[in-house]
């Protein structure tokens, strides 16, 4: 945050600043709805909580936690919870806003929210992780709920953490509230296909973008940054389609193999020790990742990774944003000038929240679908949304990002206008 804590003064180069400039770019395409656009430039509600826990060594540690509800015009807040040492309120604000755009872009009946704790979960024992999760859930329990705001996994959170969140909320409210979080284990009302959904959505939108560019996926060279739930699943699906994964970067470092990395061997090693422990590729300095010759670049880690300088040097013709907010606005312009197509985060990685929506619907109806049904519906929603966005981009001669914002913001601001101001 800038010196004066405020929703509208972003720190330079921050994710919130990136989001605000993305909104500014869509205003000319909103017509009379532009009157309501300020509503998107500030979150509806932001909660900061203290999360104290007793550590295994007997000391008391305090962590800072957040839950931001950016917009609820179209439905309850929806969005993940991130555990990371760099989490800030301003970052969570941006992530919550991107959820608002994303849920509207694929037309799910949700608003946007996000949460996080500033902590390095890799330094916690399992018991400490459970304590921090439960205390955080209890603290944000005053604003979350199955009909108000529904958390889910994000960076460094998973099904076990969702199970603890669901249990804590249920214990505090006296029932069994499966619909309060999504991304739960299958025994607790989780959905088939949820774990792979985000990576699958990246693949489905990427395959369609490649088809429209006339790029053959067979033999296409792909560089993937971030090898968690999103990057590794997308990489696997592209490799199945015949592409070569030539570079992978995770928090441990970067490996390159111009003949293509063997994913069936890489993934188990990466999950346990990180990618640099894998022997089937060359370890290179992290910055060299951006120089690797590739046709498709998949940023699937954190925000702000594609800077102007990196946008200038990438050889990719197609960028698939598996991460939220990976491209800064100046880099967006450079990629456009260089003829590189960007499938933006708010549609590219929307597969996760789409299957979260299926999970929530299944929890309420207490009737569960098989995996084929989930994947068929997911693919249909992603393709319909992408086609509509593409038509909008062609019509106005704008980027896919601005077109996605145009489609999404019209839905959000129309709902806002129809609901009217209270009181
Ligand atoms: N954390 C994911 C995202 O950024 C999923 C959110 C959800 O399922 O609610 O889209």
Description:
This protein has 423 residues and is of the alpha/beta class. Among the domains are: 44-175, Leucine Dehydrogenase, chain A, domain 1 (Rossmann fold); 197-348, Rossmann fold. The chain is 43% helix and 17% strand. It has 13 helices and 12 strands. The protein has helices at residues 15-26, 89-105, 126-140, 159-173, 194-213, 231-240, 263-273, 308-313, 329-337, 345-348, 351-365, 371-396, 400-419, and strands at 45-54, 60-71, 77-84, 112-118, 149-153, 221-225, 244-250, 253-256, 282-284, 296-299, 318-320, 341-343. The strands form 2 sheets. Strands 9-8-7-6-10-11-12 form a 7-stranded mixed sheet, sandwiched between helices. It is globular and about 55 Å long. 51% of the residues are buried. The structure holds glutamic acid. Residues 78-80, 152, 154, 182, 324, 349, 352-353, 356 line the site of glutamic acid (GLU).
Order of helices and strands: HEEEHEHEHHEHEEHEEHEHEHHHH
In the CATH hierarchy, the architecture of the domain at 197-348 is 3-Layer(aba) Sandwich
Top-tier CATH class of the domain at 197-348 = Alpha Beta
Give the distinct bound molecules: glutamic acid
- Contiguous low-pLDDT stretches (5 residues minimum) are none
CATH superfamily of the domain at 197-348: NAD(P)-binding Rossmann-like Domain
**Shape from CA axes?**
globular
| Secondary structure tally, helices | 13
N- to C-terminal distance = 31 Å
What is the rounded Rg? 21 Å
Q: What distinguishing features does this structure have?
A:
423 residues; alpha/beta; Rossmann fold; seven-stranded mixed sheet; five-stranded mixed sheet; globular; binds glutamic acid
